[in-house]
Amino acid sequence: WEGTDLPLASENWERIGPSPVTYGPTLPPPREMTHAEMRGVRDEFVRSVRMAEDAGFDMLELHCAHGYLLSSFLTPVSNLRTDEYGGSPENRLRFPVEVFVAMRAAWPDAKPMSVRVSATDWVEDGISANESVAIARAFMEAGADIIHVSTGQTTTDAKPVFGRLFQTPYSDRIRNEARIPTIAVGNITDPDQVNGIIAAGRADLVSIGRPHLSDPHWTLHAAAQQGFAGAAWPVQYYQGKVQLEREVQRAKETAAVTITGKV
Questions:
Q1: Whether residue 68 lies in the annotated active site
Q2: For 97-102, which contacts have Cβ atoms below 8 Å and span 24 or more sequence positions?
Q3: pLDDT in tens, 157-208
Q4: pTM, to two decimals
Q5: Residue from 82, 81, 78, 58 nearest 70 by CA
Q6: With the CA atoms of 105, 108, 112 and 114 taken in that order, what torsion angle do they form, in degrees rounded to the nearest 10?
Q7: What is each CA distance from 20 to 75, 78, 92, 127, in whole angstroms?
Q8: pLDDT at position 7
Q9: 34-53, pLDDT tens digit by residue?
C-alpha cells in the first residue's frame, strides 16, 4: 500500500541472495550469501518445519518460485555464482534441494510436502520448460510429493503471455514428463475449468487464489453449482446453503426450458 517493490525509507533489513543482482530498478542489489549464511537459512527453514508440526499443520509447501530466495538460486537470471551453487542447472538446484532435504527429514513421513516452482522466467536465457521438468524431477527424487507449478515473477523484465489457464501447460508437461503429481494455478476462475484440467490429466490438484478475494465462499458456491451437497457449511449459514442450492436448481431448470423450448 506504500508502493510495489519499494524499500522502506529507513530501517530496512539487509537483503541477501545468491548474487548481487537486483530484482528491479527500485531495489538495491542484495549481498551475496556466504556458505555459513546459507547453512543458517537452511536451519531456519528446518525450525519452521518443527513449529508447523507443533501447530498441527497437515502439509507443508516450500516456496521456490516468484523470485524469493530459493527461487533466486534456481534461475540463471539472478544466480551468477561461480562456486558449487551457481552456473549449471545442477549447481543452481543444489541449495534449494539441500534445504528441502533438511526440511523433509524434520517433517513426518506420513505428511506430504509440496514445492512451488516458477516453470519459466518469461525472459530469454531464463529457466526453460525443459529445465523446469528437470527441477521437478530433482525435488521428486528428494522426497517431494507434489509440485505446485507457477511461472515468472523472478525479474521485472519478464514478458508473460497472460490468458485463461495460461500456466496450466507447464503443469501438464511436468506432470506427464517428470511423472510427478502437480498443482495447476493461474487465472483459473470457475469449477468447470478446474474439472476440465483434472479430467484431462493436466494436474492432480488446482489452486484457486484471486477468486477467493472477491468471493470468500467460492468453494461452497462451486460445490452447489456442481450439485455436491456434502460441503460443510457453518451451522449459522445453513439457510444460505439451502437457498443457494434452490437457486442453482431453478437456474438449471430454466436453462433446460430455454434449450428444449418446453415447459
A1: yes
A2: 97/138, 97/139, 97/142, 98/42, 99/41, 99/42, 99/45, 99/62, 99/70, 100/62, 100/139, 100/142, 100/143, 100/144, 101/142, 101/143, 102/42, 102/43, 102/45, 102/46
A3: 999 999 999 999 999 999 999 999 999 999 999 999 999 999 999 999 999 9
A4: 0.91
A5: 78
A6: -30
A7: 14, 8, 15, 19
A8: 72
A9: 999 999 999 999 999 999 99
Instruction: Give the number of other Cβ atoms within 10 Å of residue 63's Cβ.
Output: 15
Name the nearest CA neighbour of 184 among 200, 206, 202, 165. 206
Q: Which residue among the candidates 68, 85, 170, 238 is catalytic per the annotation? A: 68
Q: Quick one: 248 exposed, middle or buried, by C-beta within 10 A (0-12, 13-18, 19+)?
A: middle
How far from 148 is each of 22, 133, 183, CA to CA, in Å? Answer: 25, 12, 5
Q: Which domains are assigned to the chain?
A: 16-210 (3.20.20.70), 215-263 (no CATH)
Model confidence at 139, in pLDDT bands (50, 70, 90)?
Answer: very high
